[in-house]
Amino acid sequence: MWQELRAELRPQGLEIVTVALDARGAESAGPWIVKAAPEHPSLIDEAHVMDALFGVVNVPSGIWIDEDGIIVRPPEPAHPRRPEYLDRAVPPDASPAERERIELVRALHVEAERYVAALRDWASTARGHDSRYALPPDEVVRRSRPRPIDEATAAAHFALGQALHMRGAQAAAVEHFREAHRLQPTNWTYRRDAWSLAGRDRELVYHTSWVDEVKREGVENYYPLLRL
Amino acid sequence: MAGWRLKPEGLCRGDRCVPFRSDDRSVDLAAAADALTMPLVHDEAHALWALGAEAGGRALKSAIAPELELPDFRGGSFRLSSLRGLKVLLVAWASW
After folding, report:
1. What is the dihedral of CA A157, A207, A171, B94, to 10 degrees?
2. Whether B89 and A16 lie within 8 Å, measured CB to CB
3. A105 at B interface, C-beta within 8 A
4. Per DSSP, what are the bridge partners of residue B93?
5. Where are the domains of chain B?
6. Does some domain include residue A47?
7. In this predicted complex, what is the ipTM?
């Protein structure tokens, strides 16, 4: 997804680093990466340390870091282009559940063009902090997510769930994933990765679904408006 | 531990230090987690422990990027600080 932008912006001094938040690691993310054949660093984050370290709660999320290692934009929705699934029409023979899911996806808020334009502006400035899209340090901290004790604890439960799943202790893993979801209900990376591990049984195991959770949290909050 | 190191002034990561006393240079994990306000969760049956995120305030305690150390998809090691001098767009994505 990011290769074209990387080829365009790398000569200007911008590097892209992609991080796959996949509990199964290279086993699930690897084939996608091999197919994309990226020239930039392509990392694997099985325990979702991106969530704990930066406050990531959904994908795709982008974080800007300047030449001196200073964050100038905290995590925010980062789409390199408009995904095709956003414009999928509801088939005439769709079941009510399928119709509801497709309509919910179509209502997601995605601003790929504005995001990429801001990224190009930042890349083109001689020093990153000169771009009007580069935020001052106190604003970066203020715009990052609140970190109450529950959300800090959710990170530990997700990491334990991931480690247990990889050791074959699926039932114990599910208990920790459920606890992570309870403590941080708006963290979509914790939810969706755990659901993917449960496969077709996901709704039986977790007693909820993507549609139910998006409706509960509000479709407008899934990808918040870009505040450029 | 999660990038924190024991120094004379306490547990330090980058420019930040949290007061922590150790008389014999050893660090008790539970005591350190408490000092750093990082929840420590235990799975007794499997003898596994996990440290959560630093609690309180915002997810980012300062705008200084934390060190990110992760394997690349071929198993090689990577450190975010190796890209100092470049602008970096760090993108979280997933296959699911």
Report:
1. -60
2. yes
3. no
4. A20
5. 5-57+65-83
6. no
7. 0.96
**pLDDT tens, residue by residue, A91-113:** 999 999 999 999 999 999 999 99
pLDDT in tens, B24-72: 888 888 899 989 999 999 999 999 999 999 999 999 999 999 999 999 9
Chain B residue nearest residue A194, CA to CA: B96
How many domains in chain A?
1
Residue A185 domain-assigned? yes
Within a domain: A215: yes
Q: Give B5→chain A minimum CA distance, Å.
A: 17
Q: Which domain, by its residues, includes A193?
A: 149-221
Tokens of B44: 């007794």
Please check whether residue A91 lies inside any domain of the structure. Answer: no
Q: For B87, which of A18, A123, A138 is closest by C-beta distance?
A: A123
DSSP string, B18-75: E----SSS---HHHHHHHTT--EEEETTTTEEEE-PPPSSBS-SSSBPPP-EEEBTTS
Cβ contact (<8 Å) for A15 and B83? yes
CATH of the domain at A213: 1.25.40
Q: Give the predicted TM-score (pTM) of the model.
A: 0.94
